[in-house]
Inverse folding.
């Protein structure tokens, strides 16, 4: 038996005695049912035999005919020697653009054999495994890839006010995944969520690169670096991402500071403009000077108004409690405008008509901020490539 086969071990779960196809992925051998596996994958359609003694080795890289011929000659010699030991083990190579991880292949089999279906309770790392292995650069399984994309988008909504950092511990990893697999709207929302948590400067050191980022972006020899199979629990940010985030933070603050610190006016009634001037300082400016993430944030009476999302569609997920902690900050424009909209301005002396007019203006400003943020992302991303 060759050295390659000596190093590989039968997978403890996905080695079926009645299996009709054997694949080696990294250091694991999987004996599975060809009719189930190959009918989904465009890449595995290359495996045309139903003989389980043929070991197909998944490896990445462009096909080198000359090199493969030398390897084939060596394998032929090995096989002649193996016949003396009554071994009928053969092997073939199936190329993928990027390396396939044994863990990812295990997750794929779990899905195909219905051991663990892809649902709303599926873990983040399992969704990423299925998203990665089903992509065109791995095993090219379109149906599963679309299911994994849909589940990723459910976990990371593109609506910024629905993507709550405190409810999602995988924002940094999600940013890497969104960038790699072309989730442009989700990437924009994740960037905003990270920027507005305002912790990336404190948590990450310049030059830190995530192991997850390395797996996604580099054609590594994963047999030499097996530790890169394991994704990190606490994500890190690459220097390029840090530069992008700092640029976006600066642009958000520059854009929103004059809006936040200038008392609002109305076009109809001087009395309402004066009421704004009287209450803008205590209700808006002063709370914004307190860190909105600290325990010092105050609760204010708010109205149960009909809220529109930044993208223009209503959502029940944006319901607000009667009293809530103030979210007012120069680096959280969408949340700050939402807080300003929710204040009971009629109670402060404004007429209902002027309040309705101002809330529409603040909603328009949210959409403007979101459009500008997308432009800043595109501009800054092009400069950091």
């Amino acid at each position: 038996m060759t050295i390659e086969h000596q190093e590989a071990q039968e997978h403890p779960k996905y080695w079926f005695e009645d299996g009709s196809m054997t694949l080696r992925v990294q250091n694991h051998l999987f004996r599975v049912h060809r009719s189930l596996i190959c009918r989904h994958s465009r890449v595995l359609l290359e495996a045309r035999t139903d003989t389980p003694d043929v070991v197909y080795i998944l490896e990445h890289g462009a096909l080198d005919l000359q090199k493969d011929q030398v390897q084939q000659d060596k394998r032929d010699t090995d096989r002649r020697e193996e016949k003396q030991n009554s071994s009928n083990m053969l092997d073939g190579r199936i190329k993928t653009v990027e390396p396939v991880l044994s863990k990812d292949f295990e997750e794929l089999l779990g899905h195909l054999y219905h051991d663990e279906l892809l649902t709303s309770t599926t873990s983040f790392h399992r969704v990423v495994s299925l998203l990665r292995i089903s992509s065109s650069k791995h095993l090219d399984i379109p149906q599963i890839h679309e299911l994994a994309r849909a589940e990723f988008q459910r976990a990371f909504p593109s609506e910024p006010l629905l993507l709550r950092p405190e409810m999602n511990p995988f924002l940094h990893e999600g940013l890497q995944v969104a960038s790699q697999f072309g989730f442009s709207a989700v990437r924009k929302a994740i960037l905003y969520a990270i920027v507005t948590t305002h912790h990336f400067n404190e948590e990450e050191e310049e030059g830190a690169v995530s192991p997850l980022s390395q797996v996604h972006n580099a054609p590594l020899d994963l047999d030499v670096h097996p530790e890169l199979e394991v994704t990190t629990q606490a994500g890190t940010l690459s220097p390029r991402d840090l530069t992008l985030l700092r640029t976006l933070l600066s642009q958000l603050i520059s854009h929103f500071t004059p809006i936040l610190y200038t008392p609002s006016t109305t076009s109809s009634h001087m009395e309402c403009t004066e009421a704004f001037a009287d209450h803008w300082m205590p209700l808006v400016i002063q709370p914004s000077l307190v860190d909105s993430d600290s325990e010092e944030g105050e609760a204010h009476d708010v109205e149960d108004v009909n809220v529109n999302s930044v993208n223009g569609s209503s959502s029940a997920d944006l319901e607000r409690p009667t009293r809530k902690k103030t979210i007012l900050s120069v680096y959280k424009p969408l949340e700050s405008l939402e807080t300003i909209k929710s204040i009971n301005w009629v109670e402060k002396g404004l007429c209902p008509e002027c309040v309705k007019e101002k809330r529409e203006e603040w909603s328009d400003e949210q959409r403007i901020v979101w459009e500008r943020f997308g432009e800043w992302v595109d501009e800054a991303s092009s400069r950091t490539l």
Q: What stands out?
A: The two ends are 47 Å apart (CA to CA).
